[in-house]
Protein backbone atom coordinates (compact mmCIF):
# COMPACT_ATOMS: atom_id res chain seq x y z
CA UNK A 1 0.00 0.00 0.00
CA UNK A 2 1.27 3.52 -0.77
CA UNK A 3 2.28 5.36 2.36
CA UNK A 4 3.56 8.71 3.50
CA UNK A 5 7.33 8.36 3.47
CA UNK A 6 9.18 9.91 6.39
CA UNK A 7 12.37 11.95 5.87
CA UNK A 8 15.74 10.66 7.03
CA UNK A 9 15.70 13.41 9.66
CA UNK A 10 12.38 12.94 11.48
CA UNK A 11 13.26 15.04 14.52
CA UNK A 12 14.38 18.55 15.34
CA UNK A 13 17.74 19.09 17.08
CA UNK A 14 15.77 19.21 20.34
CA UNK A 15 14.50 15.67 19.73
CA UNK A 16 10.90 16.57 18.89
CA UNK A 17 9.08 15.01 15.95
CA UNK A 18 9.04 17.48 13.07
CA UNK A 19 5.72 19.11 12.18
CA UNK A 20 4.13 20.12 8.90
CA UNK A 21 1.35 22.58 8.15
CA UNK A 22 -0.89 21.78 5.18
CA UNK A 23 -2.82 24.31 3.08
CA UNK A 24 -5.21 23.34 0.29
CA UNK A 25 -6.93 25.64 -2.21
CA UNK A 26 -10.17 24.61 -3.87
CA UNK A 27 -13.56 25.74 -5.16
CA UNK A 28 -17.07 24.36 -5.03
CA UNK A 29 -17.64 24.38 -1.27
CA UNK A 30 -18.98 27.18 0.90
CA UNK A 31 -16.86 27.98 3.93
CA UNK A 32 -19.43 26.78 6.52
CA UNK A 33 -19.46 23.37 4.84
CA UNK A 34 -15.66 23.19 4.98
CA UNK A 35 -15.66 24.24 8.63
CA UNK A 36 -18.27 21.62 9.50
CA UNK A 37 -16.17 18.87 7.91
CA UNK A 38 -13.14 19.90 9.98
CA UNK A 39 -15.12 19.91 13.22
CA UNK A 40 -16.77 16.56 12.46
CA UNK A 41 -13.37 14.97 11.93
CA UNK A 42 -11.32 16.60 14.66
CA UNK A 43 -13.76 18.26 17.08
CA UNK A 44 -13.39 21.87 18.12
CA UNK A 45 -15.60 24.94 17.96
CA UNK A 46 -16.55 26.86 14.82
CA UNK A 47 -16.16 30.64 15.05
CA UNK A 48 -17.31 32.66 12.04
CA UNK A 49 -15.29 35.88 11.84
CA UNK A 50 -17.02 37.03 8.61
CA UNK A 51 -18.53 35.47 5.48
CA UNK A 52 -14.93 35.29 4.23
CA UNK A 53 -13.19 33.73 7.27
CA UNK A 54 -14.07 30.98 9.73
CA UNK A 55 -11.88 29.60 12.51
CA UNK A 56 -12.22 26.11 13.93
CA UNK A 57 -10.48 26.22 17.28
CA UNK A 58 -9.47 23.67 19.91
CA UNK A 59 -9.59 20.68 17.55
CA UNK A 60 -7.60 17.52 18.21
CA UNK A 61 -4.78 19.04 16.13
CA UNK A 62 -5.10 22.71 17.08
CA UNK A 63 -6.74 25.63 15.29
CA UNK A 64 -7.79 25.44 11.64
CA UNK A 65 -8.88 28.28 9.37
CA UNK A 66 -11.04 28.27 6.26
CA UNK A 67 -11.17 31.43 4.19
CA UNK A 68 -11.67 32.96 0.79
CA UNK A 69 -8.15 33.68 -0.39
CA UNK A 70 -8.56 37.33 -1.36
CA UNK A 71 -7.57 40.28 0.83
CA UNK A 72 -9.76 42.50 -1.36
CA UNK A 73 -12.75 40.76 0.22
CA UNK A 74 -11.49 39.89 3.70
CA UNK A 75 -10.20 43.38 4.46
CA UNK A 76 -13.06 45.22 2.71
CA UNK A 77 -10.58 46.73 0.27
CA UNK A 78 -13.36 46.93 -2.29
CA UNK A 79 -15.13 49.76 -0.42
CA UNK A 80 -13.23 52.68 -2.07
CA UNK A 81 -14.14 51.29 -5.51
CA UNK A 82 -17.81 51.10 -4.56
CA UNK A 83 -17.72 54.63 -3.18
CA UNK A 84 -16.45 55.91 -6.53
CA UNK A 85 -19.67 54.68 -8.15
CA UNK A 86 -21.87 56.00 -5.35
CA UNK A 87 -22.40 52.79 -3.36
CA UNK A 88 -21.92 53.09 0.39
CA UNK A 89 -22.79 50.88 3.36
CA UNK A 90 -25.12 52.76 5.69
CA UNK A 91 -25.17 50.20 8.49
CA UNK A 92 -23.49 47.08 9.82
CA UNK A 93 -26.45 45.08 8.54
CA UNK A 94 -25.88 46.43 5.03
CA UNK A 95 -22.22 45.51 5.21
CA UNK A 96 -22.94 41.97 6.44
CA UNK A 97 -25.57 41.40 3.75
CA UNK A 98 -23.24 42.67 1.02
CA UNK A 99 -20.37 40.51 2.31
CA UNK A 100 -22.59 37.43 2.31
CA UNK A 101 -23.59 38.15 -1.31
CA UNK A 102 -19.94 38.61 -2.33
CA UNK A 103 -18.96 35.36 -0.62
CA UNK A 104 -21.56 33.43 -2.61
CA UNK A 105 -20.59 35.08 -5.90
CA UNK A 106 -16.88 34.55 -5.31
CA UNK A 107 -17.13 30.88 -4.29
CA UNK A 108 -16.42 29.55 -7.78
CA UNK A 109 -13.83 32.18 -8.78
CA UNK A 110 -11.81 33.05 -5.69
CA UNK A 111 -10.10 30.01 -4.16
CA UNK A 112 -11.33 28.79 -0.82
CA UNK A 113 -8.41 27.78 1.35
CA UNK A 114 -8.18 25.47 4.31
CA UNK A 115 -5.20 26.13 6.55
CA UNK A 116 -4.33 23.36 8.99
CA UNK A 117 -2.19 23.89 12.08
CA UNK A 118 1.23 22.24 12.19
CA UNK A 119 0.76 18.52 12.84
CA UNK A 120 3.43 15.88 13.48
CA UNK A 121 4.67 14.51 10.16
CA UNK A 122 3.55 11.08 11.35
CA UNK A 123 -0.05 12.42 11.38
CA UNK A 124 -0.23 13.25 7.67
CA UNK A 125 -2.80 10.47 7.22
CA UNK A 126 -5.26 12.62 9.20
CA UNK A 127 -4.76 15.52 6.80
CA UNK A 128 -5.39 13.17 3.89
CA UNK A 129 -8.59 11.98 5.54
CA UNK A 130 -9.66 15.63 5.59
CA UNK A 131 -8.76 15.88 1.90
CA UNK A 132 -10.93 12.85 1.13
CA UNK A 133 -13.92 14.25 3.03
CA UNK A 134 -13.69 17.58 1.22
CA UNK A 135 -13.59 15.74 -2.11
CA UNK A 136 -16.63 13.69 -1.13
CA UNK A 137 -18.49 16.91 -0.31
CA UNK A 138 -17.81 18.33 -3.80
CA UNK A 139 -14.54 20.27 -3.65
CA UNK A 140 -13.10 21.16 -7.06
CA UNK A 141 -9.41 21.20 -7.80
CA UNK A 142 -6.77 22.68 -10.08
CA UNK A 143 -7.88 21.07 -13.32
CA UNK A 144 -11.65 21.49 -12.91
CA UNK A 145 -11.57 24.83 -14.78
CA UNK A 146 -9.07 26.81 -16.83
CA UNK A 147 -9.01 29.68 -14.34
CA UNK A 148 -8.24 27.47 -11.33
CA UNK A 149 -4.59 27.84 -10.32
CA UNK A 150 -5.13 26.01 -7.04
CA UNK A 151 -2.21 24.65 -5.09
CA UNK A 152 -1.25 22.58 -2.09
CA UNK A 153 1.31 24.06 0.25
CA UNK A 154 3.39 22.27 2.85
CA UNK A 155 5.06 24.21 5.64
CA UNK A 156 7.66 21.63 6.63
CA UNK A 157 9.50 22.20 9.90
CA UNK A 158 13.24 22.34 9.30
CA UNK A 159 15.37 19.58 10.80
CA UNK A 160 18.05 22.15 11.60
CA UNK A 161 18.87 25.80 11.12
CA UNK A 162 22.57 25.76 10.30
CA UNK A 163 23.52 27.36 6.97
CA UNK A 164 25.06 24.23 5.42
CA UNK A 165 21.84 22.24 5.90
CA UNK A 166 19.69 25.07 4.52
CA UNK A 167 22.04 25.52 1.56
CA UNK A 168 21.88 21.79 0.78
CA UNK A 169 18.09 21.80 0.88
CA UNK A 170 18.09 24.65 -1.64
CA UNK A 171 20.63 22.84 -3.80
CA UNK A 172 18.56 19.66 -3.77
CA UNK A 173 15.41 21.53 -4.68
CA UNK A 174 16.83 23.38 -7.68
CA UNK A 175 18.37 20.16 -9.02
CA UNK A 176 15.04 18.35 -8.72
CA UNK A 177 12.79 21.21 -9.85
CA UNK A 178 12.19 19.96 -13.39
CA UNK A 179 11.55 16.40 -12.23
CA UNK A 180 9.11 17.61 -9.56
CA UNK A 181 7.27 19.64 -12.20
CA UNK A 182 6.94 16.55 -14.36
CA UNK A 183 5.92 14.18 -11.56
CA UNK A 184 3.34 16.63 -10.27
CA UNK A 185 2.13 17.55 -13.79
CA UNK A 186 1.99 21.15 -12.61
CA UNK A 187 -0.97 22.74 -14.37
CA UNK A 188 -0.46 25.40 -17.06
CA UNK A 189 -2.68 27.83 -15.13
CA UNK A 190 -0.21 27.62 -12.24
CA UNK A 191 2.88 27.83 -14.45
CA UNK A 192 1.76 31.08 -16.06
CA UNK A 193 0.56 32.58 -12.78
CA UNK A 194 3.23 34.47 -10.79
CA UNK A 195 3.05 32.33 -7.65
CA UNK A 196 5.66 29.64 -8.34
CA UNK A 197 8.26 31.23 -10.60
CA UNK A 198 11.41 29.13 -10.86
CA UNK A 199 14.62 30.23 -9.21
CA UNK A 200 16.72 32.39 -11.57
CA UNK A 201 19.68 30.77 -13.28
CA UNK A 202 22.23 33.12 -11.72
CA UNK A 203 21.09 32.12 -8.23
CA UNK A 204 21.12 28.41 -9.09
CA UNK A 205 24.69 28.67 -10.38
CA UNK A 206 25.74 30.60 -7.27
CA UNK A 207 24.47 28.07 -4.73
CA UNK A 208 25.70 25.03 -6.68
CA UNK A 209 29.29 26.26 -6.76
CA UNK A 210 31.54 23.92 -4.78
CA UNK A 211 33.07 26.78 -2.78
CA UNK A 212 29.73 28.32 -1.81
CA UNK A 213 29.89 27.90 1.97
CA UNK A 214 28.21 31.05 3.33
CA UNK A 215 27.45 31.84 6.91
CA UNK A 216 23.78 32.33 7.73
CA UNK A 217 23.77 36.08 7.12
CA UNK A 218 25.36 35.75 3.68
CA UNK A 219 23.08 32.83 2.74
CA UNK A 220 20.01 34.94 3.52
CA UNK A 221 21.44 38.09 1.91
CA UNK A 222 22.21 36.23 -1.32
CA UNK A 223 18.75 34.71 -1.38
CA UNK A 224 17.14 38.14 -0.98
CA UNK A 225 19.29 39.66 -3.75
CA UNK A 226 18.16 37.03 -6.25
CA UNK A 227 14.69 36.24 -4.85
CA UNK A 228 13.04 39.35 -3.37
CA UNK A 229 9.64 37.64 -3.51
CA UNK A 230 7.48 34.96 -1.91
CA UNK A 231 6.66 33.63 -5.37
CA UNK A 232 9.07 30.74 -5.52
CA UNK A 233 8.10 27.04 -5.51
CA UNK A 234 10.26 26.70 -2.39
CA UNK A 235 9.73 29.96 -0.51
CA UNK A 236 12.45 30.46 2.11
CA UNK A 237 11.28 33.85 3.35
CA UNK A 238 9.28 32.56 6.38
CA UNK A 239 12.27 30.57 7.58
CA UNK A 240 14.75 33.35 6.91
CA UNK A 241 12.47 35.91 8.58
CA UNK A 242 12.44 33.65 11.64
CA UNK A 243 16.24 33.58 11.70
CA UNK A 244 17.08 37.19 10.75
CA UNK A 245 13.89 39.25 10.85
CA UNK A 246 15.54 42.65 10.37
CA UNK A 247 17.43 41.54 7.27
CA UNK A 248 14.31 40.11 5.63
CA UNK A 249 11.87 42.80 6.65
CA UNK A 250 14.18 45.55 5.39
CA UNK A 251 14.36 43.91 1.96
CA UNK A 252 11.93 44.80 -0.88
CA UNK A 253 9.71 41.76 -0.22
CA UNK A 254 6.00 41.26 0.54
CA UNK A 255 6.47 41.96 4.26
CA UNK A 256 2.77 41.94 5.16
CA UNK A 257 2.38 38.41 3.80
CA UNK A 258 5.43 36.80 5.43
CA UNK A 259 4.78 34.75 8.57
CA UNK A 260 8.12 34.06 10.25
CA UNK A 261 8.45 30.39 11.22
CA UNK A 262 11.19 27.73 11.04
CA UNK A 263 9.67 25.97 8.04
CA UNK A 264 10.28 25.32 4.37
CA UNK A 265 7.30 26.77 2.49
CA UNK A 266 6.82 24.31 -0.40
CA UNK A 267 4.33 25.82 -2.85
CA UNK A 268 4.78 23.84 -6.08
CA UNK A 269 2.09 21.08 -6.13
CA UNK A 270 -1.34 21.25 -7.73
CA UNK A 271 -4.41 20.66 -5.58
CA UNK A 272 -6.23 17.98 -7.58
CA UNK A 273 -8.65 17.36 -4.75
CA UNK A 274 -11.57 16.28 -6.97
CA UNK A 275 -9.58 13.59 -8.80
CA UNK A 276 -10.15 10.06 -7.42
CA UNK A 277 -6.57 8.86 -7.92
CA UNK A 278 -4.92 11.88 -6.27
CA UNK A 279 -4.08 12.37 -2.60
CA UNK A 280 -1.66 14.32 -0.44
CA UNK A 281 0.64 11.31 -0.58
CA UNK A 282 1.91 12.20 -4.06
CA UNK A 283 3.11 15.76 -3.39
CA UNK A 284 4.44 14.83 0.06
CA UNK A 285 6.49 11.91 -1.25
CA UNK A 286 7.82 14.18 -3.99
CA UNK A 287 8.97 16.58 -1.27
CA UNK A 288 10.79 13.66 0.36
CA UNK A 289 12.90 13.43 -2.80
CA UNK A 290 14.31 16.86 -1.88
CA UNK A 291 15.05 15.75 1.68
CA UNK A 292 16.69 12.53 0.47
CA UNK A 293 18.97 14.26 -2.03
CA UNK A 294 19.94 16.96 0.46
CA UNK A 295 20.98 14.25 2.93
CA UNK A 296 23.08 12.42 0.31
CA UNK A 297 25.96 14.88 0.28
CA UNK A 298 28.21 12.91 -2.09
CA UNK A 299 25.48 12.58 -4.71
CA UNK A 300 24.44 16.19 -4.15
CA UNK A 301 27.98 17.35 -4.90
CA UNK A 302 28.14 15.11 -7.97
CA UNK A 303 24.87 16.40 -9.38
CA UNK A 304 25.80 20.01 -8.62
CA UNK A 305 29.08 19.66 -10.55
CA UNK A 306 27.28 18.03 -13.46
CA UNK A 307 24.70 20.80 -13.60
CA UNK A 308 27.34 23.51 -13.71
CA UNK A 309 29.27 21.67 -16.44
CA UNK A 310 26.35 20.41 -18.57
CA UNK A 311 22.97 21.60 -17.33
CA UNK A 312 19.88 20.02 -18.80
CA UNK A 313 19.58 16.51 -20.13
CA UNK A 314 22.72 15.10 -18.51
CA UNK A 315 21.60 16.07 -15.04
CA UNK A 316 18.03 14.97 -15.77
CA UNK A 317 19.33 11.50 -16.68
CA UNK A 318 21.42 11.35 -13.50
CA UNK A 319 18.45 12.39 -11.39
CA UNK A 320 16.26 9.74 -13.03
CA UNK A 321 18.81 7.04 -12.27
CA UNK A 322 19.05 8.19 -8.66
CA UNK A 323 15.27 8.30 -8.23
CA UNK A 324 15.07 4.72 -9.49
CA UNK A 325 17.38 3.63 -6.69
CA UNK A 326 15.04 5.05 -4.04
CA UNK A 327 12.48 2.31 -4.58
CA UNK A 328 9.08 1.89 -6.15
CA UNK A 329 7.35 4.04 -3.52
CA UNK A 330 8.51 7.18 -5.33
CA UNK A 331 6.73 6.03 -8.49
CA UNK A 332 3.34 5.47 -6.87
Can you offer a commentary on this structure?
It is built from 14 helices and nine strands. Helix 6 (163-183) packs across helix 12 and helix 6 (163-183) packs across helix 13 (297-309). Helix content is 45%, strand content 14%. The chain has helices at residues 31-42, 71-74, 79-84, 92-106, 124-137, 163-183, 188-192, 201-208, 216-226, 237-243, 245-249, 281-295, 297-309, 313-325, and strands spanning 19-26, 45-50, 53-59, 62-68, 112-115, 119-120, 152-157, 234-235, 263-266. It folds into two domains: 17-139; 162-332, no CATH class. Strands 1, 2, 3, 4, 5, 6, 7, 8 and 9 form a nine-stranded antiparallel sheet that branches. The longest helix has 21 residues, at 163-183. The chain starts with 18 loop residues before the first strand and ends in a 7-residue tail after the last helix. It is an alpha+beta fold and 332 residues long.
* Tally of individual helices: 14
How can the largest sheet be summarized? Answer: 9 strands, antiparallel
Radius of gyration: 21 Å
Strand content: 5-15%
Oligomeric state of this protein:
single chain
Number of domains: 2
Structure summary, number of beta strands = 9
Average pLDDT for all residues: 83
Element order: H for helix, E for strand: EHEEEHHHEEHEHHHHEHHEHHH
Anisotropy-based shape: globular
* Uncertain residue ranges: 76-85
The proportion of residues forming helix, as a percent range, comes to 40-55%
Overall structural class, as computed from helix and strand content, comes to alpha+beta
Q: Distance between the terminal alpha carbons, to the nearest Å?
A: 9 Å
Amino acid sequence: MPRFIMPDLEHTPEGDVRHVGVEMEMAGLELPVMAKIVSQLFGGRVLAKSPFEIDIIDTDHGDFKVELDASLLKNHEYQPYLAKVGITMNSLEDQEAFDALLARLAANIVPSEIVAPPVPIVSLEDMDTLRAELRQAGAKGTRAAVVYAFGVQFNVEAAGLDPAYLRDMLRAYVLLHDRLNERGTVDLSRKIAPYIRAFPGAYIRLILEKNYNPNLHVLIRDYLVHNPTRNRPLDMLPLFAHLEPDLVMNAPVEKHLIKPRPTFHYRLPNCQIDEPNWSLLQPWNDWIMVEKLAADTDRLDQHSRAFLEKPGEVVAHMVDEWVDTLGTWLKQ
